Amino acid sequence: MSQKLKATIRRIMKWEQLGTPTAKETSQSPEQRVQLLPGVLLCLIVSLVCLLITSFFPTLSSMLLAILLGMLLRNIINIPEILEPGIAFSAKRILRWGVVLLGVQVSLSDIVQLGVPVLILDVFAVTITFLMTIFIGKLLKVDKDLTSLIAAGFSICGAAAIAGFQGTIKAAEEKVAAAVALVVLFGTLMIAQIPVLIHLLDLNLSQGATLMGASIHEVAQVVATAGIMGSAYLTVATMIKLARVSLMAPAIFIFNLFNRQHQKESQMKPALIPLFVVGFILMVVISSLKVIPTSWTEPIKYLQQLVLGAAMFGLGLGVHFKSLKKLGLKPILLGLISTTTIIFVVLICISLGLFAHIY
């Protein structure tokens, strides 16, 4: 790989703020910017193909498909050097754009309509699952960064939360890819498991929708599960899930605050709220003010899926099987425990009637 390409990739990997490059980055030559195009276009095209494929198979995740394709390609063929800068850009910067766009789906007025008890349920489920995952990760001696990413993804909102936390802990691509693959895999399994649980426990519509929204990892997986159970579940389940999504920003703030207090003075301290998370919050505010026309909601949602898929493909292309193999089976066990924890916590909350006022 040429020195110029290596320098470009290193520069991309250091970009930490969304949309606000440093003075050195703004001085990039047009030639350096053009170097990004081939890799970025490849990632976007593959993401689009994955979305088209999964449109015929609703239970299949486009993000999981994209990340697996990236991992396979990286390990069976030699990736042309010309693609590397754009791939690195997709795995870092574009990933954060996906987090920002997720904010369009969240409306504070809808969340407030759920009422305090349901918000307490979400906060309780997220907090207990996050802390339990961190605790079990330490017991299992799973890598600290990977444990944090799994805790975020499984307790809050899947790949978007992993992307948010990755921006603060600077985890290696193998760990990010592993966390995303696990959260998408277990979330996909929940699409089949949650309806079975609803029937076995004889939960009513309100209870079943609450279980979906407060436990399933990804928004898309909540929608898919509601599709299995019936459209009557969709509105409440999605609103409860989006209330969980809104907890991503305060969770990152608290996580960074805790980390800053436990870091040595010589270490660089992370920003309490990374700029791309500020972007997410601004999108939530804009969505809540109803500034965005309703007709734009679905296209923006599709764009967010396209962008995240491109980022997942880029992440997958950064993963070498040898490095992934070193992580072992313990992260899978941790993911299973984390998933079981959030389901169990939500069921306890349901048994206490914290959902009852929705209808």
UniProtKB/TrEMBL annotation:
Where it sits in the cell: the answer is:
Cell membrane
Gene Ontology cellular component? plasma membrane
| Superkingdom field | Bacteria
The record ties this protein, via InterPro entries, to: UPF0324_pro
| Topology in membrane | Multi-pass membrane protein
- UniProt keywords, alphabetically: Cell membrane, Membrane, Transmembrane, Transmembrane helix
| Residue runs in coiled coils | none
Q: Where are the transmembrane segments?
A: 36-57, 63-82, 118-137, 149-169, 175-198, 242-259, 271-290, 302-321, 333-358
Family per record: Belongs to the UPF0324 family.
Return the protein name: Sulfate exporter family transporter
